[in-house]
Specification:
By secondary structure, this protein is mostly helical.
Length: 82
């Protein structure tokens, strides 16, 4: 029989891995607003125009998240006991 602390550590390994992968994947994405001044200067556009793709990403994510969440709840594979 395993001690509870060892079992909790074993279960949290994938969680820590997912967090690390998410930090790497989204790190570049979330630096976009900080770099928008440089993009605006490089392309000779206003900062407002430079952050428009970021704003559109946020709007699309905000609209799609509840819809995708509901679809996942309804269509996800359900296993007994989970």
């Amino acid at each position: 029989m395993r001690p509870a602390a060892r079992q909790a550590t074993r279960v949290s390994g994938p969680l820590v891995g997912a967090f690390g992968l998410g930090a790497i994947a989204y790190g570049g994405l979330y630096t976009f607003p900080a770099l928008s001044n440089a993009f605006a200067a490089e392309f000779g556009i206003s900062r407002t125009l430079a952050v428009t793709p970021w704003a559109m990403f946020l709007v699309v994510t905000a609209v799609a998240s509840p819809l995708l969440g509901k679809a996942y709840d309804e269509l996800a594979d359900r296993r007994p006991g989970c």
